[in-house]
Write a structure and sequence with these properties.
Elements (H helix, E strand, L loop, with lengths): L1 E5 L23 H4 L8 H15 L3 E7 L5 E7 L13 E7 L7 H14 L10 E6 L4 H6 L20 H13 L3 E8 L4 H4 L3 E3 L3 E4 L8 H20 L5 E3 L1 E2 L7 E3 L7 H6 L4 E8 L8 H21 L1 H13 L9 E9 L7 E7 L5 E6 L2 E2 L1 E9 L3 E5 L3 H9 L12 E17 L2 E16 L4 E5 L5 H8 L26 E7 L1
Parallel strand pairs: 4-5, 4-6, 6-12, 8-9, 11-16
Antiparallel strand pairs: 1-15, 2-3, 3-5, 7-14, 8-12, 10-11, 13-17, 14-15, 18-21, 18-22, 19-20, 19-22
Amino acid sequence: MLRRSFAPSLIAISGALFLFSCAPSTFPTPLEEGGEGYLTSHEDMLTFLGELRDATGAFTMEAIGASVEGRELVLLHFPGADGSAEGAGEKLKVLIFAQQHGNEPSGKEAAIALARDIATGDFSDPLGRVDFYLIPQVNPDGSEARQRTNADGKDLNRDHVALFTPEVLAVHQAFQKIMPEVVLDVHEYGITSNAWLDIGVRKNFGQQIGALSNANMSAALRSYALDRVIPEMREALSSRDVSLNRYLVSSGPDARFRYSTTALNDGRNSTGIYNALTFLIEGRNGLSVEENIRERARQQLETMRAFLSFFDEHAAEVKTMVAAEQAKLSRDAAPEEVALVMDYVEDPDRPTVTAGVVDAETGEEGTMTIEDFHPAVEATLFVRRPLGYAIPAHLTGVIEALERHGIAMTPPDGSTSAIVESYRIESVTPTRKEDKDFLEVEVTGRRGSMEVPADYVLVWCAGVQSNLIVSLLEPQSQWGLAPLPEFSSLLEVGSDYPILRILERVE
């Protein structure tokens, strides 16, 4: 249920406003030089960034992979204002990546401009305390085709569990190599659909930001993101004609509204499960991919700059906090239980939410109050964290997925006696969670001692990947491997789940 009202806009931005009023004239970006409807091509992006690197020496640029059609994916590294890596180990490591969806180009355009601003000294202050990494474009094939998916038709921001796509695999390999304390994934949201046009409006939610949401992630980091990072960014951006709001998700104005997903198969939560401080930005898309691209990119750039400025100012505090929260994932300090199933629910303290809209005919800006609001995450199924898992070697798909995540596996050492728990799959029932299809899995367990056979591999639940390992391997896990179509054989009703839980080792 919603209530709608219209009022004059508080923020009026001229359609003739250029992307940056103070952009250095010696290095205009391809977008700034392009004509009406221009978007920076992958080739032009690489040429511009290469020339910028060579002229300034402010960053390195390395290939970290290639797209399905062979386009190079690059990682830019800005270690310091003077371009040196001296003291970089003391700094807060921040990674930003953009354009996982090819029809969301403003993040890429803003990333190119951000690289220019840092390299030319127009925005170099954060490099005093921040060791900055930037992947300006994750999905070049989709960008060239003006489509959401990659060249194989895969939605990259739904592949962060299995890591099948080369583009997402490259992002995770970079993440695992860098191990940044802070991550930002940059997107755009669609402003219209038939459901919205039926009531005569389009969405006008401003710049939207999502933070850690999965129930297994550090409560301290989640609170810091919501209580410190977002409010201070919002205040900083208000003077730059940018409205920043929590990221709202809904299939239409008459459907329920919630905040962004708890799923581990997106770029934010898949890195946040390491107890890193991770975020998602959703800028306002156009009615076409090209419409109003300069203003869309300007707002994305301002948001990225506010993001980096916050973490520059609070670098030491955040670095210490993330290190402490990651230390809690060690075997002795980790929580006893891991949440496997969760969803958004109502909160009596936040019964409604107000969102911006634009009249589809007049362009007049207003607001609507949504009463079907579910802002709180509730976990409904937990499992006790095991010591580790034993995986049959014939489950090559599972083993390869773990390898893609950089998860260490070892063979039994010849004397691996253990108390293990095995599951029997009793039922698999399709249902809905977070407005998505979900498999509700019922199991029965039995325990016993055994010598782990030599044709198994062992995975131990310890360190920063501890919550990830449990989430990937439990059969009831909402965001694990088993519910994915490629792993459907793991959930055959009436059969034993082939992966064993190691509860303790027997000397």
